[in-house]
Design a protein that fits this description.
- By secondary structure, the chain is an alpha+beta fold.
- It has one domain: 3-Layer(aba) Sandwich (GIY-YIG endonuclease).
- 42% of the residues lie in helices and 25% in strands.
- The chain has four helices and three strands.
- A three-stranded antiparallel sheet has the order 2-1-3, with helices on both faces.
């Protein structure tokens, strides 16, 4: 059974987070750190700071979009510090 992940990477170099989804977390992180894509190249090295596991691709995509729609660094950091526990809906 295939698993899907929503992940958050952090680059200290550019002080930015990256949110994405994948079915192969290790491969995807390696690709970010190999500079696949203009944004990834600027931030090397990327560090995995958070991930969630899903049974289906559609669940992972929906969660990724939910996180991205917040457009909030504070929300992302609250997820990271929650250790994967659901964060109550708020205007974080």
């Amino acid at each position: 059974m295939e698993e899907w992940f929503v992940y958050i990477l952090y680059s200290e170099k550019i002080d930015k987070y990256y949110v994405g989804y994948t079915s192969d977390l290790d491969l995807r992180i390696n690709r970010h750190n190999e500079g696949w894509g203009k944004f990834s190249l600027k931030g090397i090295p990327w560090k995995l700071v958070y991930h969630e596991r899903f049974k289906t691709k559609s669940e992972a995509i929906n969660r990724e979009l939910q996180i991205k729609k917040r457009k909030s660094r504070k929300f992302i950091e609250s997820l990271i510090h929650s250790g994967g526990r659901p964060v109550p809906n708020s205007d974080v």
